[in-house]
């Protein structure tokens, strides 16, 4: 596999980018073969800087819902680009988009738009505190809500005061949630939850309806706000709020990633019980009102309402999960596949230091399929049954190649440093 352009870029990047790359998009935590740089994308495929093509099961870590460069969305974006993007104030699309989301998301009575998921989750916390006049916010331990000091998983640059009023409970564990609520006393502002437990490196958990309902009851009893972080899972599980199927409506929800199919926009949605608090906080950013992503969002949301994108990804996800299990078994491997099929986490049983998963990822990459060894993946609506056939053929060969390599596999050095030797 040619890697010369990627290697040259990495060498240049080391001089002008801290560590050559930052965040979880750095290949520092991925198998050695994984490319750092990508040059283009189309539909379900991405091309690295050397021109190698991959069927992409990461979908840009979520933003590609319909497939890269979906022509319907791009046409809407182009039409708005011809008129203007970042202006002195919002375009009329601000109101159109807010009306659209208020219509589609049951609990939403209003919207504030921003750029990244972290903007939306951070604002959700501020609105809950402004509305209640209280400080304590409960979070599920290990859940990712963004890269700000209050929520980054990496402690560098964070001081304890940044998290002074945060408390942690265990996702799906009603007892631990009740305990954390009791300890917050009369200072509870909010409880945060993800639509399902989609933490990195571990098996995913669907929400226990009893946990979701109890979170709602506890908030109601305490006069606190329930916040659902839809940034990753929003519109991938439902055409509206992910917990509507459980009969639970949050007060606030944070959205991002996919609702403009890759165009940069996120949103905080809330109900009327938080409208005053939302009106009190200072909400702005130089690019928060840019109109092109709003045009892309309105078209993406139309496609979400009018097509079978969701059922299609579930159909493909079921085929992928079942086919992979069968292929793994034929080669003597057992997989731990968890999470919704359209957002799958694929780990190996008996692979505590991830050496097997990492090597399988490399073998898939060599065969033109980009999978992730520890983060949940995403299917997009541009994928076809033929793409799943292609991926399953690659998987069959990758398991065979893995078997041959198994005796000589070593754990990834950065993971050993992170988790210690197993
Ligand atoms: N919340 C969740 C659940 C996320 O998955 C992410 C991004 N991975 C964020 C918040 C933060 O979003 P962003 O990276 O756009 O700031």
Automatic annotation (TrEMBL):
Keywords: Aminotransferase, Pyridoxal phosphate, Transferase
InterPro entries: Aminotrans_3, Aminotrans_3_PPA_site, PyrdxlP-dep_Trfase, PyrdxlP-dep_Trfase_major, PyrdxlP-dep_Trfase_small
UniProt superkingdom: Bacteria
Molecular function terms, GO-annotated: pyridoxal phosphate binding; transaminase activity
Keyword Coiled coil in record: no
The keyword Transferase is annotated on this UniProt entry: yes
Cofactor: pyridoxal 5'-phosphate
UniProt-listed SUPFAM superfamilies: PLP-dependent transferases (SSF53383)
Pfam families assigned to the protein according to its UniProt record, in alphabetical order: Aminotran_3
Stated family: Belongs to the class-III pyridoxal-phosphate-dependent aminotransferase family.
Protein name listed in UniProt: Aminotransferase class III-fold pyridoxal phosphate-dependent enzyme
Native source organism of the sequence: Novosphingobium olei
């Amino acid at each position: 596999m040619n890697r010369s352009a990627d290697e040259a870029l990495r060498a240049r990047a080391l001089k002008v980018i801290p560590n050559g790359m930052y965040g979880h998009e750095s290949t520092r935590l991925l198998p050695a073969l994984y490319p750092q740089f990508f040059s283009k994308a189309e539909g379900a495929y991405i091309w690295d800087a050397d021109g190698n093509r991959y069927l992409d099961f990461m979908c840009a870590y979520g933003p590609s819902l319909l497939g890269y460069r979906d022509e319907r969305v791009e046409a809407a974006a182009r039409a708005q680009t011809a008129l203007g993007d970042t202006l002195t104030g919002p375009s009329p699309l601000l109101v159109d988009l807010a009306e659209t989301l208020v219509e589609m998301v049951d609990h939403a009575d209003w919207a504030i738009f921003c750029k990244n998921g972290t903007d939306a989750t951070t604002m959700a916390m501020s609105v809950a505190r402004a509305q209640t006049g209280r400080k304590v916010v409960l979070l599920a331990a290990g859940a990712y809500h963004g890269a700000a000091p209050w929520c980054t998983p990496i402690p560098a640059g964070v001081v304890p005061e940044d998290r002074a009023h945060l408390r942690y409970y265990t996702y799906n564990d009603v007892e631990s949630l009740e305990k954390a609520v009791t300890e917050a006393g009369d200072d509870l502002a909010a409880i945060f939850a993800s639509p399902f437990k989609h933490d990195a490196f571990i098996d995913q958990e669907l929400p226990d309806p009893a946990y979701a309902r109890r979170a709602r009851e506890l908030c109601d009893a305490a006069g606190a706000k329930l916040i659902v972080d839809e940034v990753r899972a929003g519109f991938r599980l439902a055409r509206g709020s992910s917990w509507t199927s459980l009969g639970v409506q949050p007060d606030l929800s944070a959205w991002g990633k996919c609702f403009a199919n890759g165009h940069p926009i996120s949103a905080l949605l809330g109900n009327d019980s938080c409208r005053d608090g939302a009106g009190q906080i200072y909400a702005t950013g130089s690019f928060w009102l840019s109109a092109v992503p709003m045009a892309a969002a309105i078209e993406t949301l139309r496609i979400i309402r009018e097509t079978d994108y969701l059922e299609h990804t579930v159909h493909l996800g079921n085929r992928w999960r079942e086919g992979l299990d069968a292929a793994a078994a034929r080669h003597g491997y057992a997989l731990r596949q968890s999470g919704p099929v359209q957002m799958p986490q694929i780990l190996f049983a008996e692979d505590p230091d991830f050496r097997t998963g990492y090597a399988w990822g490399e073998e898939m990459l060599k065969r033109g399929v980009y999978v992730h060894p520890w983060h949940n993946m995403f299917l997009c609506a541009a994928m076809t049954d033929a793409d799943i056939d292609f991926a399953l053929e690659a998987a069959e060969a990758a398991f065979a190649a893995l078997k041959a390599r198994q005796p000589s596999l070593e754990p990834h050095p950065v993971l050993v440093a992170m988790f210690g030797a197993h």
